[in-house]
Amino acid sequence: MRSVPAFLVSMITALPHWAVRLPSSSSFSSSSSTPIARCLRRALFLGLGWLAFYGPTHLATAAPEPTPQEEPVSAQQKGSVIRVNSTNQSYDFFRPWNKQAPGGRRGLGVLIDGNKVLVTAELVTNSDYVELERPDGGAKMSAAVQVIDYEANLALLTPADPKFLQGMVSLEVDPKARTGDKLSVLQLESNGTPVSTQALVTSVEVGKYALEDSGYLMLRLSCPLQFRENSFTLPITKENKLAAFLMRYDSRSQAVDAISGPVIEHFMKEAQHEPYQGFPRAGMAISPTRDPQLRRYLKLQDSDGGVYVNETERGGPAEKAGIRPGDVLVAIGDKQVDPDGNYVHPFYGKLSITHLTTTEAYSGESLAVTVIRDGERKRLNMELFRQSPEDYVVDPYSTGQQPHYYILGGLVLQELSRPFLREWGTNWVHAAPQRLVYADRFQSELFRDKRKIVFVSQVLATQDTNGYEQLSYPVLTRLNGKEIKNLDDVAEAVKQPVDGFHKLEFDQDPREIYLDAKQVEDDAPQLQKMYALPALSHL
Amino acid sequence: MPNANPPLQRQASGTVSPLMPIVRCFVAVLLLIATDAFAQTAVDIRRGLVRISTTSQEPDYKAPWNPGATSGGLGAGFAVDGDRILTNAHVVSNARFISIDRENDPQRYQAIVQFIGHDCDLAVLRVLDRSFFKNTHPLGFGGIPAIESPVSVYGYPIGGERLSVTRGIVSRIDFQTYSHSAVDQHLAVQIDAAINPGNSGGPVMQNGKVVGVAFQGYSGDVAQNVGYMIPTPVIQRFLQDISSGNYDGYVDLSISYTKLLNPAASRALGISDPNEGVLVSSVSAGGSCAGQLQKGDVLLSIDDHPISSDGFVQLDGERVDMPEIVERKFKGDKVRLGILRNKQKETVDIDLKGAWPYLLQANRYDTPPRFVLFAGLVFQPLSKNFMDAYQVDDLRLRYYYTSFVSDEIYKEHPEVIVLSNILPDPINAYLSNLRFQIVDSINDQKVRTLRDVANAFAQKPDFYVIRFIGSSRPAVLDRSAVEEARNRILANYNVHTEQYLEGGITP
User: Fold this and answer.
1) pLDDT of residue A56
2) What is the complex's ipTM, to 2 decimals?
3) For residues B153 and B42, what is the distance between their CA atoms, to the nearest angstrom?
């Protein structure tokens, strides 16, 4: 239904002719891409790189001469790397009753903790089927994803038959790699021979992992890698121990971003717990306090250091600990926080406090936190935990579950999630409906209660939706007079039409529309058949 | 609803290029072999048509203390009764000097803008030398021409220096966005005669009468032969409005409504005839209908014209959009609405006035940019001119701009004050990441207008604490440091005025 404004600007408000493309992110790689997109890009790169190196005769069995940067592989390293093939199928967030076409990814995993295989989460996101393939002989075995952490980008696989990995060597984790260290990046030739390339650690600092909001200790290495097949994820060792895991590689700058040893160690420890608790987050936004005028106003001494707390996440550890916006965080435990938000790590030196609160600390632990409020020091107790994506108003990522939806008379209602917005591609911040992008970005500020954002994602045209075909992602605020905070509320409210009609109220024009309740019910089977929908709802 | 039309071009020409003699001859020949009727019209036109050269000064929103760059433009206009010249507003907006000339007269005459309507892209000029009108032939107005009837467009478009004529037919009569303000929609008549830069303000004639003023069109790579003229009802309304001595502008119901195309909606609302009525979706606070209409009311009639469920009324034998009724009204006029509220019939009388919040998204002219400069920080109110100049990418700022009217942001923030620019100086060295944040309060006083900002900075506390919307930290300025830095910043950046507070869209 078109909303006709009487000389109002509603029609013009959607004209984004002043919007410009966001300059490409200065971070290492296009971190706004989905794991799938990045995987495909890398797969494409790898495919091309590999072809360039080997030519079309990929069945050749003779291994090429090792290049000068490549070095001999120890017996230890030889037996610890295994091929992992994953078939993945993500849900289509535009048509949440469908899955996308299946795609395959191939990478390398490393044996760890006896008989488990460590890979990155990106390799096995949305996997339908995971298979391990031994480099010696090519024997295959299906595997289950035992634990997957999307934020830290790690996953643990167990083979269906525990005896499958006999004869291979499990690596220990060495969390102490630092700038200047020379590490080894492991790959497998096509005939299964392991090959190792030397890499130099250029920096160790907190950096962005797979998701926008997740940052953990990251190793940057300089490494002239020549890709073999299956090189989507690669183990990096230091003297026969697992020191890091390759996440991204830029062949132009020959720079590797790798998951660090401490993160792998934290992951492996947490993997033993049921349920998996992952990496906690303090849940606060901070800014530096270098400005001397700000420091004078906040009554801070030079020796206080400290960062300014802008905001605390709803229901997060910082909020629960009593930390308030306006506080200056000066110490965590016995570690001083400097005006840039760093502390001094005994081994790594200056690091962001994020490492302290997400990786060194574990869910369930408490940290003593010192803040300065109105010129006075206060000690607070912060119990750390991780909020799962479902706890957010807008889920930041998908855990592979089918998205919820409810179809009413042809109107498809969904709960807003970032994966939905990411369906608009790498430029989703500008391309996706801006009201929804705004609600996602500022959800902590706009919504202080626990809820989801229910909206019309599309209209399947039927007799019942006559006149409503032009609805443009409006948010459903009330149905039949009842406030809507999630799709369960929708299912409940549908049971009670008013005078035989469903009244839907939205946050934008058209603010009110009506459906004939009985007709919607009678037409449901026809709607399902016409659009070949397996189900009219999934809650 | 998103407007899918690509941006329209205005038709004032910016440059005049030298002509080849052969082209001049060609035009002259064409006129000589014209038919009698045509030659007659052409002769009269030449005594009513003028070419307008405007030197204007465009404001600089990024350095709002600067006077702005000068530029020149060419358009057309014509004499109407009362010793006046009618033309488009966009031909003479931001004008500093207007010079007009006409066929067969070597002299140039200076003109000034007497009335200008930016909401309908029309302007009336006075010529300083009144004797100019002794030899002019004012043109008369006709009605709305019929679809498919022929029209002729007169003006001074690119391609030559002398009067040009193009012909076409009337293609469509519709509500269109007038690109001059970019937010106002009025009746516009689409014709397929060539309308090019330089035609703006020129008359479109049929049977010796003006049936429209050529004003905008699409460029050739977007659409072919699509030009627009402002029809006489809009022109007549403008002339009537200014007869009081002021241009009051359009009045507005300031509501949004949805068509009732779904029979279930009609039944749910208790409307007996499913072909009748539209549903009020939102009522703008502070607009004409505030306090009298509410969301959920059904509009059944306007001034006793029944409203059909697709939003049309019958007017003078034509089916027109319901807003057309209000289009023809003036400030202070009333309109009577027949409504259905909670299934009961009622009548509501509305005193009509103009809407102001939507002006945030309108192009503004003939007004310098408003700003306050303090400690090297530039504060400006959000506006379309602002967004166009800065090409802001900030998500929050774009949301505030886009949803200013629809989400009633103007209630809390009649003006959205933005820290738009920072002139670097030691005093603001750490504030650069606060650029494009929206000011919420200064020293705990809420900031709702630019004047609030100026008043806050006129006080003398030890610190100025500027808080922004969202989760940024506050900007803190030490008063003694601000005073010490002031002259240094003004000298460094060649700034002669520290603030401009006049004008603005808030009532």
Assistant:
1) 33
2) 0.85
3) 11
